[in-house]
Structure formats: C-alpha cells, structure tokens
Design brief:
The protein has about 220 residues and is α/β, with parallel strands linked by helices. The protein contains 8 helices and 7 strands; from the N terminus they run ααβαβαββαβαααββ.
Length: about 220
C-alpha cells in the first residue's frame, strides 16, 4: 500500500531551520515552564544510565535539553544541521556554565566515531529527516553494544483535541499558542510517522526491531543495539 511504503529518502524537503526562524523558535521554547519540563524529562529519561555516560542528542535545536542532560553530570554531544542552532546552543550552555560539545552535521552521515555513545536521543525532529533509514543506521553505528536510542516525535495519528490539550499545557500565550497549534495540527502532523510506518522503517535499518509507545500526541521509539 502506498501509505506504508518506506524509502531511504523522503522526496519532500523541509526548509532548514536557521537565522531569524531559529531564533524565534528558541524564544518560544525557552520559557521557564518549558525549561522546567526539559529538566524533569532529562532526569526521567536518564534514570537508568550510569554516571558519566556518553550521550548524543541528534537535532538539538536551541540546546535546552542537551544542557539539562549535562547538568546531570553526563558527557553530552549535540549534532544539528543548522549553524544558527549551534550558535544558540553554545550561548545557552555558556550562560548556564555547562559544557556540551555542540557540532554542526548531518544525522544521515554523522562526523562521529563508531561506538562512541551509550545513549542517543532525538526529539521532535525525526519526521523532518530526508534520509530516515540512513539516520537510523547512523544512530546504530555510533552506539556502543548494549546502547539505547530513543526517538520522540509527533504521532501522525494524534487527534486534534489532543493537540489542543498539548498546546494549552505549554503555557506560551494566545498568539504563540495559536501558531503552534496550527503548525502541530497541520504540516508537522502530516509529515509525522504513525507507529506502523515507523516500525516498518526500523525493520529496514540496522536496528531491525524497536519498542513503541504513544504518549499524548507523541510517539516514542526505543531502539537497542
């Protein structure tokens, strides 16, 4: 069936998040409630990792989550294709007096050594990757044996009412909330993967299998090497 076909490359390209657009996104996502949510999520996600573990965040955006991971004492590297996000993330890390190795690079061809990380995380970006299977293969390559990768993104099957509740919980104000609601419920949801499609894609990657849950409007994929 056409909607189940998974190719190594997606034909529709997403404009690179850079310049003023990236800075506006960073302001919207840098509110105190959002930062507190990332701090809590970082602690929950890494609860089973040993102290000092090496973590890679793919498509780190403004770097807020990566900085919270570093605050917990982990060795954190970030990789993002957008130069503006590298700049913004470094500024945020410096402000917080925390060290994160933010780098510019393509997730489908990472400039990183084999078996360098214990944990890889990608949030809210996988749907935009133009070479998704190659991206999965690269995550597998840079993970150490026994390592785990977690992909969190929007669920293609999320209902409009669920999107509304998610935006209300962001506490970003009426104007920003309207824009976010329109974006999440429109273009981003159309681009996002359903659990079935993601599972089919993983089957073509070096991971081969995965575990999938669907919290709220999201999809969470756990991959083990």
């Amino acid at each position: 069936m056409k909607n189940q076909e998974i190719t190594r490359e997606r034909r529709k390209l997403v404009p690179e998040m850079g310049g003023p657009l990236a800075r506006m996104y960073a302001r919207q996502r840098g509110t105190e409630p959002q930062l507190a949510a990332w701090r809590k999520q970082a602690a929950e996600m890494t609860a089973g990792l040993p102290g000092g573990a090496d973590i890679l965040e793919v498509a780190f955006g403004p770097g807020y989550f990566a900085v919270e991971l570093a605050r917990l004492g982990f060795s954190v590297t970030g990789l993002d294709v957008a130069p503006t996000f590298v700049e913004l993330a470094n500024e945020h890390a410096a402000k917080e007096r925390l060290r994160v190795d933010f780098r510019q690079g393509d997730v489908a061809a990472m400039p990183l050594e084999d078996e360098s990380f214990d944990f890889v995380v990608c949030q809210a970006a996988f749907k935009n990757f133009t070479r998704p299977v190659d991206a999965l293969d690269e995550m597998h390559r840079v993970l150490r044996p026994g390592g785990i990768a977690v992909v969190q993104d929007l669920n293609h099957e999320a209902a409009a009412a669920d999107v509304d509740r998610e935006v209300v919980g962001m506490d970003v104000g009426r104007v920003a909330g309207f824009a976010i609601r329109h974006t999440l419920g429109g273009m981003l949801r159309r681009r996002a993967y359903s659990p079935e499609r993601f599972r089919l894609m993983v089957a073509r990657s070096a991971f081969e299998t995965c575990e999938i849950t669907t919290p709220g409007i999201g999809i969470e994929v756990t991959l083990r090497k």
